[in-house]
Every structure is written in C-alpha cells, then in structure tokens.
Design goal:
With 120 residues, this protein is mainly β. It is built from no helices and eleven strands.
C-alpha cells in the first residue's frame, strides 16, 4: 500500500511561484510513473504533468507547458511540481497520483491534495 501526501500549496500573487511536493510512504514509488492533477471549484479533475520512473522524461498539459516543471527524487521517494508564472486560473486543489503507466491514467494511489490559490 502506498500513501501519498502533498504539501507546498498556499496563497500566491499572480506571477509568483510555488513548489509542490508529493511524499510517498508505505512502499517506494521509484519504479512508478507519477502524475500531477488539479481540480478547480465546479470543474472536473484535469491532468497537469507526468513524469516517468527515472525522471528523465516529462509531459505537460498545454495550459501549464513552459511554466510548470515536474521532477522527482527517488532516494527521497518524493515527486515535485515547480510552478512558475502562476495565473489566477491555476487556482485549484493539486493532487499527485501514481500512473498506471507513463502517459496513462492515474491509479488508485492518490493523495488528498493541497490547495493552491493565485490572486490577481
């Protein structure tokens, strides 16, 4: 069983930056592709970023490409999402999840989320 806990969310002004962390416990996620997702009020959950098991390959939603960067430290069993040039439309609860495969859907291993609020 894998437990995922996100942290690093908060309130930031437009144009600012935040770094989210997703710490895994229980079992290692070093062999798993991981993803970041977000859900804004009244909207469905959407994909944000994915990273392969080694961290040398990533892909992003068009809305965040060039502004967000996913990375990981397998020695720490942690995945990160660096968010720069934040916009009010980035406001959402951000979740991490283990992916079924790189580029695939999220598995049942998901965190509870961390709130990101971007003020204009």
């Amino acid at each position: 069983q894998v437990q995922l806990v996100e942290s690093g969310g908060g309130l930031v002004q437009a144009g600012g930056s935040l770094r989210l962390s997703c710490a895994a416990s229980g079992r290692t996620v070093a062999s798993k592709a991981m993803g970041w997702f977000r859900q804004a009020p009244g909207k469905e959950r959407e994909f944000v970023a994915g990273i392969n098991w080694s961290g040398d390959s990533t892909y992003y939603a068009e809305a965040v490409k060039g502004r967000f960067t996913a990375s990981r430290d397998n020695a720490k069993n942690t995945v990160y999402l660096q968010m720069n040039s934040l916009k009010p439309e980035d406001t959402a609860v951000y979740y991490c999840a283990a992916l079924m495969r790189y580029g695939g859907p999220p598995s049942s291993y998901r965190g509870q989320g961390t709130q990101v609020t971007v003020s204009s």
